[in-house]
Write a structure and sequence with these properties.
This protein is mainly beta. It has five domains: about 190 residues, Sandwich (Jelly Rolls), CATH 2.60.120; about 130 residues, Immunoglobulins (Immunoglobulin-like, Sandwich); about 160 residues, Jelly Rolls (Sandwich); about 100 residues, Immunoglobulin-like (Sandwich); about 80 residues, Immunoglobulin-like (Sandwich). The chain contains three helices and 48 strands. Strands 1, 24, 26, 27, 28, 31, 33 and 34 form an eight-stranded mixed sheet that branches. Strands 22, 23, 25, 29, 30, 32, 35 and 36 form an eight-stranded antiparallel sheet that branches. Strands 2, 4, 5, 7, 10 and 12 form a six-stranded antiparallel sheet that branches. A hairpin with a 2-residue loop joins β47 and β48. The chain is globular.
Length: about 750
């Protein structure tokens, strides 16, 4: 690859090489597409007693501004421009923003605190670029009786464009000294907060435990666009044993000294040869980082990595063991890389372990995936979290701009087609586009176009989907030799813009220099920090063409309600793979309420649609009121685990029914459903208490009538009290977790 020496202010996990003429392109504000994420349910934790909390219920109709800052709180605007933290309970707006409080906020309707930067810089239709510099500080909080202190809150932010900083500061001496905790977590510009950072839990015991006058400050500065929102702030006693796997990395050996990040799809013909540096091309190496977020030393901490190929384990390794003190961090690496030796779907499971009994196991395990196939070379996964265009960077947004991703070919091959995830059109008209392949030529020190597809117009069927176009072959240019290539999307809008947003993969880690943008404005390439979903397909075969799909469906709730009677009733699957005629009955040999069936010889890559049915009857199929079919794209390994009708029973289940309230299954393994039938719309409040009377979970759902909610918890085994307030009705149910 081409090399470029960079001056950096900090060392990144990995650096890629690229040419001297490649520059880093700066972010520019862009309008965010509508929110697509489904409602998230916060995990219930059995942590310590709540020391102090606020839901920011500051509404005050008697005040002209609609709210009043409670006594002891302080808001400061260091810019002196009126661009400070404020209270809101409605939609945030501005030139590039239109967003409500997100679904993971527990109490959004009674208000939240925020910094609506976009509104501040879009007053009276005039766009300004004033940087925000403001903080909000709590009153003194008495933690003198708390042996440990953890700060919990819900947040969402989107920032632009450089020098963006969000800090949580803690003082115990009236502000003479402050401890700083960075709560942006490295999230890049133009990015809405990823799920894993929605609800931080930060152990501040070293500055707050046993202290009488603890204050929390949220400080945001440096950015001029988008927004920051915070709700449901709590101080709670920390866990004694809470080892956190804070991050994980898998790095593909691309033949260079520096790793090249994770590759989601790689052709088998492009791996296995000797690297010029060390090891084999295609080896995956693994690393994890830890945080001791509890109060006890974590003894003999290590990372375990398991690799499964098509459901069978092919590697299991541990790192060396170390002791991590409270609030300390560490990083450790698996000693030997793994080289896949066959086609298959591979799952990497990272687990943080120690000798201590773990109280919060949910934050100890993460998984990533990759596939060794015969044709597709694709860095990104195949699920776009958002979309991005060249208009997201300064100087971009012109017709003819190109978004591209870099790939290194190790063996000769013939290219057949190029694939990209098309998100939306960036303008009002119908854009046109083509896919293009470039090769780096050392003698020109530049990327030269070698092959392309026809120019086509985007239509509605292409929106938010993967589009594949064949390249125009001439008998020569389609035969590729080893080297560095860029695979790109060139687009034109009717109004002179670049025309298209390309799908953006937020989850795949990649180093600098592998995602690029060509800008017509200066006839040059620049590196960007967003991984677009663009790959290519080679003329190759050898991989399996059909596969079996293992269907598993949990009928526990329907069995308990009497809706399904084992022995006399049966469940089957009707789908497009059996012409909707129904399968043979599914079986439950273990008697655990989970019915299974394997359907063989389905074409790999085929999207199947299906529903489960009781007794082959469409009237008893799940989602019978016209709901969407289940959908799935067949891979090499297919293990589908579903719950019939999303766990909702149509029958009457007397156990744990109180009036119009039903809680099931109970006992459970920590996942249960609350179903309430109201005659009128009310707010519903759920609260779980342990037998010591400590509240371990609270959530309010507003304006509900026929209410069904699945709660997923990681509470330890035991007996709890679930309090349900529906309007004026208060019901308490004994909840058993086993």
């Amino acid at each position: 690859m081409k090399k470029l020496t960079l001056l950096l202010f900090l060392i990144l996990p990995y650096l890629g090489g690229f040419s001297q003429h490649i520059r880093k392109v700066e972010d520019t504000p862009v309008k965010m597409p509508e929110r697509l994420s489904s409602p998230a349910i916060p995990a219930v934790k059995a942590g310590g007693e709540i020391i102090w909390q606020t839901s920011f219920d500051w509404a005050d109709p008697s005040n002209q501004q609609g709210w009043t800052l409670p006594s002891g709180w302080h808001i400061t605007d260091n810019s002196d421009l009126g661009n400070a933290w404020t209270w809101r309970d409605d939609t945030l707006g501005g030139l590039y923003t239109s967003v409500d409080a997100p679904s993971h906020f527990e109490t959004p309707k009674n208000g939240f605190i925020c910094v609506p930067m976009d509104e501040y810089n879009s007053r009276d239709g005039v766009s300004t670029g004033n940087a925000i510099d403001t903080h909000i500080t709590t009153p003194p909080i008495d933690c003198s009786n708390a042996p440990s202190v953890m700060v919990r809150f819900n947040q969402e932010f989107r920032l632009c464009c450089t020098d963006y900083n969000i800090e949580m500061l803690v003082t115990n001496d009236g502000g003479v000294h402050w401890a700083s905790y960075e709560i942006r977590f490295g999230v890049r510009g133009n990015t809405v907060t990823p799920d894993k950072f929605h609800s931080p839990e930060i152990n501040v015991s070293d500055v707050a435990a046993g202290m009488k006058n603890v204050q929390i400050r949220f400080y945001i500065h440096g950015m001029a666009r988008y927004y920051m929102m915070i709700d449901d702030l709590k101080l709670v006693e920390a866990f004694e044993n809470d080892l956190v796997l804070t991050d994980n990395w898998s790095n593909f050996n691309g033949g260079f000294t520096s790793p090249i990040g994770h590759i989601n799809y790689v052709p088998f013909t492009q791996i296995g040869m000797d690297s010029k540096e060390s090891g084999k091309i295609g080896e995956y190496s693994f690393k994890g980082s830890f945080l001791n977020n509890g109060m006890s030393d974590q003894e003999n901490v290590y990372l375990n990595v398991s690799v499964q190929k098509n459901g069978s384990e092919v590697m299991n390794q541990n790192t060396s063991k170390r002791t991590i003190w409270p609030l300390e961090r560490d990083t450790n690496e698996i000693p030997q890389p793994y080289l896949p030796v066959d086609y298959g779907d591979y799952m990497i499971t990272y687990t943080a372990k120690s000798d201590n009994p773990e109280e919060v196991p949910a934050n100890n395990v993460t998984r990533t995936y990759f596939t060794v196939n015969d044709t597709l070379y694709q860095r990104a996964d195949l699920s776009a979290e958002s979309g991005i265009s060249s208009g997201a960077w300064t100087g971009g947004g012109r017709a003819g701009d190109v978004m591209a991703v870099s790939y290194d070919l190790q063996a000769p091959c013939e290219i057949n087609s190029i694939s990209a995830y098309l998100w939306v059109a960036t303008g009002e008209g119908i854009p046109s586009f083509q896919f293009v392949l470039y090769k780096y030529m050392a003698e020109e020190d530049d990327y030269i176009e070698v092959i392309s597809t026809d120019v086509v117009e985007m239509d509605s069927t292409m929106r938010r989907s993967i589009v594949t176009l064949p390249v125009s072959k001439d008998g020569e240019s389609e035969f590729l030799q080893p080297g560095e290539y860029l695979v790109g999307v060139r687009s034109w809008g009717e109004d002179g813009t670049e025309g298209l947003d390309i799908g953006w993969d937020l989850s795949t880690k990649f180093p600098t220099g592998y995602s690029l943008c060509y800008q017509v404005s200066d006839n040059g390439w620049g590196t960007v920090d967003k991984l677009t979903m663009i790959g290519f397909n080679i003329n190759q075969d050898g991989g399996p063409v059909v596969s079996g799909v293992n269907f598993n469906v949990d009928m526990t709730n329907q069995i308990k309600s009497g809706e399904f009677k084992p022995g006399s009733d049966f469940i089957d699957i009707a789908g497009n793979f059996n012409n909707w005629g129904g399968s043979e009955p599914m079986t439950d040999p273990e008697g655990d309420g989970i019915y299974s069936l394997t359907v063989s010889n389905i074409e790999i890559g085929k999207q199947i649609e299906f529903k489960y049915r009781i007794n082959g009857n469409w009237e008893t199929s799940e989602l019978p009121d016209g709901g969407s079919n289940r959908k799935y794209t067949v891979r090499y390994w297919n293990e589908l685990n579903h719950v019939y009708n999303n766990g909702i029973s149509a029958g009457i289940f007397d156990f744990n029914r109180t009036g119009n309230i039903l809680v099931f299954p109970n006992p459970s393994d920590g996942i249960f459903t609350v179903k309430i039938e109201n005659s009128e719309t009310t707010d519903i409040q759920l609260e779980i208490l342990n037998l010591q009377g400590q509240v371990v979970f609270q959530k309010t759902f507003y304006n509900q009538q026929n209410f069904v909610q699945i709660l997923r918890t990681d509470l330890p085994k035991g007996i709890y009290l679930l309090k349900i307030r529906s309007g004026d009705q208060l019901t308490t149910v004994k909840l058993i977790i086993r």
